[in-house]
Request: fold
Amino acid sequence: METLKSAFDFSDFPRLDISIAGIIAIFLLVFPLFSHSAFAMATMIQFLMFSVYGMGWNTIGGYGGQVDLGKAQYVGIGAYTTAVLLIRWNIPFWFSMPLGVCLAMAWSFIIGYPLFRLKGHYFAIATIATSLVLMDLFSVWEFVGAARGLEISPIKYHYPDFWRLIFKKDIYYYYVILGFFFVGILYVNGFRRSRLGFQLRSIRDNEEMASSLGINVHWAKIKTYAIATAFVSVVGSFHACYIKNIEPQDTMGLDLSILIALMAMLGGAGSLWGPIIGAAVLIPLKSYLKAWLGGAAGLAGIDLVIYAVIIMLISALEPRGIWGIVEKVRRRRWQ
Amino acid sequence: MKVYTRKIMTVMCLFAVVGILVPSGAWAVKEVKIGVIYPLTGGAAAAGRELRAGAELAAEIANNVMPDLPMAMAKNAGIKSLGGAKIKLIFKDHEGNPTLGADLAKKLILDDKVDGILGCYHSSVTKTVSAVCEQYGVPMINGSSTSPGLTQRGFKWFWRTTPHDKWFTKDLFELLKGLMEGKVRGVAKVPEKDLMNLASACENTEWGSHVSELIKDLAIVNYKEYGFKMKKSLLYAANSADLSSEVRSLKAARPDVMLFASYTSDAILLVKTLKAQRAQPKIIWGQDAGFEKPEFRETLGDSIQGILTRTVFLPKVVEIKKVAGQVNALYKAKTGNDLGGASARAFTGLQTWVYILEKAGSTKPAAIQAAANSIHISGKELVVPWAGIKFSTSGDELGQNVLGSGLIGQYQKEKDGSIGLEIVYPFDVASANMIYPFPKW
Amino acid sequence: MDILIGSLVAGVLIGMILALVALGLTIIFGVMDIVNFAHGEFLMIGMYTGLLTAQATGIDPLLTLPVAAMVGFLLGVICYYGFIKYLVRGPMVAQLLGTFGLMLFLRNLALLIFGSEDQALHRGILIGKSFDLGMGVIVPATKLAAALLSVIAFLAIWLLMNRTKTGKALTATALNARGARYMGIPTDRMNALAWGIGGASVTMAGALLVNFWSVNPFVGILFTMIAFAIVALGGFGSVPGAFFAGLVVGMIMEIPGIWDFLTYALNWDWMANVPMTSLKYTFVYLAYFIIMVLRPRGLFGWKR
Reply:
């Protein structure tokens, strides 16, 4: 009960933040009711998916300061669990998703235990390595379709099928992922003021000191890593039902890992709103720039060049991301 | 406060951009919109250009009157049964990415309101795009993806004009059989033990891994009595920078016949590495794709003499088929290149769309579906050397053209010193003596 | 037997070449303690430099090495003064983010300029030639030359680091930047120099690689990962370590060949069906992970 209360407790934010967040939340709720293009809808779903990925990443990467560049492996575990169970045994999403989370967390414990002996860059690169190893293994594993991947056939199910999460219209998917999005915000809000949350921030700021205060540093990191994993795995399961086709390269490639981390870091690692801001800036930028400049004008790559310049500027000028700029401006105003 | 206002404005603007309504545009009355999804950028961009040019040429012919072209669609401007409606192609670029392909399909169907889809070259992308089309009940014609699985999914809105890999791979084994029985033009009967040992290297994708399975299946099951042995069948990561360990592994198996399924860059790299490693099989056979692209011939030059590739179209077809020659001339005037397997099939894909629309006399999906399921296009109309186009409507392959057929070509030196493809299979249309065994590098 | 020898020889050659790729990364890391995720993109730029220079001027691709080295040096120095210098003031998260941004920037700029198609060199003194060493071992001339140049480059860098004043200043900066500054060493310039040398060595490796590998804007990341593996195995910052680790990684990449040898030697059918070739890079990543966890300093590490 106490934890639930703390999840809904946003009182330490300025009132303005809360009102903006409220407006945005209402906008997100009613957005599908306005007339919109399928493209805008797809972009919004992408934005929500990456926000949740980012929130997951933010627990370990932002509050914990452990830069994880291998999140895609858990997207893969979630997506594959859901797809395999649905295709082979017709097990609905709402059962396979928690199972996927369990599997992903189990895997995160297995590799997390040795991984967290490493620090800084070493940890970051090692997470890439584990993610790539898992991807390579999936692409030769016949049971999960190897490189061909798995397809959730659109003709086998009657839609809308809420249990299996098979819909024709994107609007249903939108509300499902929006639900996860709100739950995610509430969870992270509770998490940041939980015991583990405070432990983690002290680890980030000074590991030796945290350890001397009696915090089990290694265990705190592993636990948080598993929490981050759960977030990512849920969206992975959703991804399987939404895209209906998963392949190792597409679902758990390095690009996805990087994108997840970049968005969270760009928005502002270690703040509640950071990953959401990051996704809100980068996802529309990416899709619309691509649509306007990429395919049509034949300027393949220009979208990502602009994207990269933004990332470089932010990282050199304001390491705490966009949220860092917001806070800086705010502090200056108060002085 | 100013700062906050600005912040609110920024955030609001952002969402305004996201939620912006894309108007579907004024409805042109006499227009049939076909969404075309091809890899216009990305690793297969060269193929994408060919595909696009092929489809565009077919649309030009359909939209204009070209009386001296013996094709029904050249006789009138636009679709006659739709009151002369013109074909309008909306191109989208999938970059070889299946997820992006599915997104684009949704966009075409919902935002651009296309009447049908054509595409997508990569079998993996065709898979996701056809799934979206199936869901929305929008007809899709596929002209160039050859993974057999695509038409075995029971889809009702998906038709494929090209024959698939099972037929092509069978052709290969027919050729090997022909060599053993002395049926091949210019080659004396070859003892069975000289062609027994096979090895294959296919890219590890939807398409390549299917081909690999097929080769194994056919060698061991269907053509068992010829004693084929699958010495090695390996899958390699597509777009590899280096394939030397793969080639060494193939070579170590000492095969008589090497079989490949690769896109352009890998195909070039493979042949270069085979040459550097002095691999000396008796037959090298490529499963179309990279092995029949102009780049393959241009970059490797003389060293590809003797390499076999399956295809559905090669310039020699022009000598047998008059209509192919005429279309080829138009295509050459447009692009500077001869028609190839990719462009000819894209052309045929769009041509099939035109005939189906003509027959349907409506752009209602149900009418198009009925027309597609009952259409029969004569082989005389086509540039490709097929008996015609007629889709299967029952059995385990829905929507597969049953009248298609493949060719096997061999790179040989022409009289003018350039390298060109000669037909070696089917035996009755062979255009030259086959070079056997594969010459020393 | 010839399969085994063939694989081992190929492993050694490729190992030396990969070591050269990793050399730049280890120098930069050693001096500055920053991980450059754009390393593979530097290599890609080197490959394009070699390719385009050879195509434009018609000179042999081997002669493009100095051009590539110059481009690399400039690129490294510009990156340092224009970007990295500001980046290192921030926390590690920002450094990672920044070099990632650099990676994306260079990769997509290349995509914009050169297009996504693979390009390769087809003419040159060494291209297409190979030596038959007997026993079925065939060595492509290009790879042999690249391996030799790699050894020379390593010797040169090693001499620079250990026998010259500049090298000593670099080492001092690496060991203790603040101390070095107090001693009057211009650490800023030393850092720039490290980036220059690192850039030059990797673009040179690229110009060599393009003799036998094709280039597209996306080749970078594979090499970044392999270079990371080598640098980690060799110990971050260790020059000789990088060389030996390169050889180790070369051998690991030949595991499929060794597996083939065992398959034929033992004549076990099931072994032939294991998709080893698809996993050749997997072994590299796995080795990296295992070594990092068991021995975070790497096999030959010297720095803390």
Remarks:
- Chain B has two domains: 31-163+319-389, 166-311+406-429.
- The first strand of chain B starts at residue 31 and ends at 38.
- Residues 85 and 435 of chain B are 50 Å apart (CA to CA).
- The interface with chain C takes residues 41-43, 45-46, 204, 232, 234-237, 239, 241-242, 244-246, 248-249, 252, 264-265, 268-269, 272, 275-278, 299-301 of chain B (CB under 8 Å).
